[in-house]
Amino acid sequence: MVGSLANMPSSGHSYIISAKRTALGRVGGLHRSRRIEALVAPVVAAVLEDSGLEAAAVDEVILGNTMQGGNPARLIGLAAGLPETASAITVDRQCASGLDAIVAGCRAIETGEAEVVIAGGAESISTAPWRIAKPKSLYQTPHFIGLEAASEETGEDAQLFEASEVLSQRLNISRDQQDQWALRSHLKANAAQDKRTFVGEIVPLRGNAEEARDQSAGVDPSLDELTALPPFLPPTGTLTPGNTSAMHDGAAIVAIVSEAVWQKLGKPPALRFVASVSQGVVHGNEAGAPMEAMKKLYGRLEGFNSKDIGLVELNENSAAQAIAFSSSLGLEDDLVNPDGGAIVRGNPLAAAGAVLVVRLFTRMVRQRDDKKPNLGIAALGAIGGIGVAALFEAI
């Protein structure tokens, strides 16, 4: 038995051959009435059509999700018309869940467990069930739970802007620097929208213009307007609604195939999975988790440095985090989020990491620039003080 398991086939490399997402919508906004399967199934169908894969070829659905409960990956697979024989699993590492799902799909293929995997992340905060902590006594008022607890002592986790505030104070990142970063993120996103960069990436669920762009994008704030916004933590706080990201609904899905399937399809342009890491950090450094993950990734790859990277997609929980990330790793501003980031489009929690991979696919595959290095990184932090980073190569 042991010998037969040891001889299980390995698929070699894994390839992302299609990557799409919904427009991101404010909570209670664009996707307010869509259950998670209605939000995601059309994106799965679009990815299958774009890749030329038959639904019957799918071996596994792997979905990142934090708010729904149960196994929404199975519901989505069935709603998308995948065969009942296709297995499904939902993973939860908070904001990193979607990236984790994609990495898990790549590894399943590389170990020979699957040939075709549909993976990504989705969050329908607008329709997610409410969760209530069980009262300790009959007379205690029930407590509604927003996100999963990440602290053993308190049962709660520091808000993202509190963690970023600690980071900004420690690294002396000024309010002006953060507002300037946020302004540049808006300018980049608006320029990308004008160039129709997101066409082919976003699946309009109703086929209208409103659903073809992120709901919070298109704003054109001035620096004065950003400066006028009050901080979350007065009087000395530097983080505001203008230089941080807000929670949004949305989904992002990719199709991953084995080397054999990729060759049968004619070797279409793709992202090849190279490596990924995750890294926990000590309490008080939660906002620094993406940097620590990147340093770990660099250490795993002999001779690798920032000059080898053509693109970095970072989930902008806050401008403070993005500034610290870029400066600590010596990354040029135009290398990180060239089409804007989550400060503009919003943070769809479990879908956030999958959105980053879709962005890599758009920039490095759909709109490939042969003058730039063909390596791209998706990186983000997750509630609880965990950083995740994944490296892909455009083929």
From TrEMBL:
Lineage of origin: Bacteria, Pseudomonadati, Pseudomonadota, Alphaproteobacteria, Hyphomicrobiales
Protein name: Acetyl-CoA acetyltransferase with thiolase domain (Acetoacetyl-CoA thiolase)
Organism: Candidatus Filomicrobium marinum
Pfam families from the UniProt entry: Thiolase_C (PF02803), Thiolase_N (PF00108)
Single GO MF descriptor: acetyl-CoA C-acetyltransferase activity
Enzyme Commission number(s) of this protein: 2.3.1.9
Keyword Transmembrane helix (UniProt): yes
Family per record: Belongs to the thiolase-like superfamily. Thiolase family.
InterPro entries: Thiolase (IPR002155), Thiolase-like (IPR016039), Thiolase_C (IPR020617), Thiolase_N (IPR020616)
Domain Thiolase C-terminal: 287-393
PANTHER family (UniProt xref): ACETYL-COA ACETYLTRANSFERASE, CYTOSOLIC, ACETYL-COA C-ACYLTRANSFERASE
Domain Thiolase N-terminal as annotated: residue spans: 15-259
CDD domains found in the cross-reference section: thiolase
UniProt keywords, alphabetically: Acyltransferase, Membrane, Transferase, Transmembrane, Transmembrane helix
Transmembrane segments: 342-362, 374-392
